[in-house]
Amino acid sequence: MSVRSVFAADLESYRRALQQALADVDRGGPGWPERVSSRVRALDSVTLADGQTIRPDNAGLLADLAARAPNRTAVRARLRSLLAELDATSHASTGHSIDRAELDLVLQRPEFRNRPFGNPLTELLEGLWLRFLNWLASRFGGLPSASSEPGPAQQAIPPLAALLGMLLILWIAWQLRWLAGRAVVEAPKLELAVPPTSRTLLAEAEQHAAAGRFRAAIRSLYFATLVDWEERSLLRFDRSLTNREVLARARAHDNPQVPERLAPLVERFDRFWYGGKLAGAGEYREFAQLAGAARELA
């Protein structure tokens, strides 16, 4: 048996075992981590053509499989990367005995080493960086690949990821603060309600009457009279009092004409506004005469 055939048979057995493990991952289903773990544990050694035996470091892969919730994507990526590296090594070594250091280099790649779970952002950046290094190594000779020992650039990934994470948090906080400030600026300003003057209420009454809203016109006339008295310090108009309470306060006035002029206004207003009586043009004119007489009181 030639050196090539011995090498091919050994390598093929190892490759088939990895492919079967990958098929178990793809199929998934209950118990898939146990099935894959069993196959990986069986790959405890690889015998080379020169009789040497090496033990692949599958601790990282086994650790992923032993996790409480194994990540199928991560396990699949590990197996596919290992198969791809074995294929590349096989093509490069056809007709020659496999070099122990070369296969050891494949099996000792950082992604096949056992390492604790870290920051997801750090792992993402590190994975992208390793792929970039592999791409450079495949295009330009002499460049370090991802399987090399971590250099200064790779060692700078964790602090760089931490810095990017902090900048991202600060940016999000700034955005939230800016949005909150914008909401305050754009919030409608609440203006304090200014009590209308008697002149304003009289104009409002005329507008209601012109539009045929005589009930509303009577209401505006009634309040215009009370506000007019307050403006002339004849009777304080407390808007928290009922009409009957306003009338009771008027009866305590020194001028007896104040309650005499106010009483018919209160009676008719209550009849139209609270009693539900319909008001027409005639009722409005009658109420306007009473309100006018009350406003003429000195």
How would you sum up this structure, described in words?
- The chain has a two-stranded antiparallel sheet.
- Mean pLDDT is 74; it is low at 1-9, 94-98 and 183-192.
- The protein starts with a helix and ends with a helix.
- α9 packs antiparallel against α10 and α10 (214-231) packs antiparallel against α12 (257-273).
- It contains 13 helices and two strands.
- The chain is an all-alpha fold and 298 residues long.
- The chain has helices spanning 3-27, 32-42, 59-65, 72-92, 100-107, 120-139, 152-155, 157-186, 198-210, 214-231, 243-251, 257-273, 281-295; strands at residues 46-47, 53-54.
- The chain folds into three domains: 1-116; 118-150; 198-295, no CATH class.
- The chain is rod-shaped, with a radius of gyration of 46 Å.
Topology, pairings included?
Layout: H1 3-27, H2 32-42, E1 46-47, E2 53-54, H3 59-65, H4 72-92, H5 100-107, H6 120-139, H7 152-155, H8 157-186, H9 198-210, H10 214-231, H11 243-251, H12 257-273, H13 281-295
Antiparallel strand pairs: 1-2
Helix pairs in contact: 1-2, 1-4, 4-5, 6-8, 9-10, 10-12, 10-13, 11-12, 12-13
